[in-house]
Write a structure and sequence with these properties.
Layout: E1 5-9, E2 12-17, H1 19-27, E3 36-39, E4 45-47, H2 52-62, H3 69-81, H4 97-107, H5 110-126, H6 138-150, H7 153-158, H8 165-177, H9 187-203, H10 205-217
Antiparallel strand pairs: 1-2, 1-3, 3-4
Length: about 220
């Protein structure tokens, strides 16, 4: 029989709850480590801080640095979707960065559009708090995607992102706008288009490399 727990919250006895659920309540601040829970096995009330199978869970999860409220909400959503931490599927759209670069070159950067859609689709399906209103602005949409990847709590456990979300979004916006100026003076215009052609596809490469490396380190590739 799997052990479950009863606990008291706002003066009411609640449960039964699994060890992972009790650990989540501690992380959310609804229970304290000194709060007591009743075991379904021996019916004894024990302090949470003395129950190793619970403390092991919330101590492991507390090692993630939550740098701001947005990251904190991401992490809480991750806990709700994946309370036991057993999901082994890749985080975000995971494609080898070399393959991505090659596909961009042969498709005229159309793969970049697919790439942004697949990342947005992942966020929509995995983050209940993800705000889609930013789609009305190309710059904010790109920035939002770059930022969500940069600040993902699981990735932050591995290492800091090797790029700046705002810088990449601004660069990509400038690359897209620049050809519309249309100098119309022959080779200079062709050179400009060539730079844009390579540049737009290249902006997502450091982001994809970061996704690949983090997924591999997490055993999700």
């Amino acid at each position: 029989m799997k052990q479950t727990w009863l606990y008291t919250y706002l003066g009411k006895t609640c449960g039964p709850a699994s060890s992972a659920e009790i650990a989540k309540l501690v992380l959310e601040g609804k229970l304290e480590p000194d709060s007591t829970v009743q075991s379904s096995v021996d019916q004894l009330w024990k302090k949470i801080s003395t129950i190793k199978e619970i403390t092991d869970i919330y101590h492991q999860r507390e090692t993630i640095t939550l740098s701001d409220e947005d990251t904190a909400r991401q992490f809480q959503t991750f806990l709700k979707i994946n309370p036991d931490g057993k999901d082994s599927s890749p985080i975000f759209y995971n494609i080898n960065w070399k393959t991505l670069f090659f596909l961009n070159m042969i498709t005229g950067n159309l793969t970049t559009v697919v790439w942004f859609y697949r990342q947005w689709e992942y966020l929509k399906n995995h983050r209940k708090d993800y705000q889609t209103y930013r789609r009305v602005s190309f710059w904010f949409f790109n920035y939002d995607i770059f930022c969500a990847i940069e600040r993902h709590p699981e990735f932050m456990r591995i290492r800091r992102a090797p790029y700046n979300s705002a810088h990449l979004a601004i660069l990509e916006a400038l690359l897209i706008v620049s050809p519309s100026t249309g100098f119309g003076i022959g080779w200079i215009e062709w050179l400009l288009y060539a730079i844009v052609y390579v540049g737009i596809g290249y902006t997502i490469i450091p982001v994809q490399k970061y996704i690949n490396e983090c997924n591999q380190a997490l055993g999700r590739s």
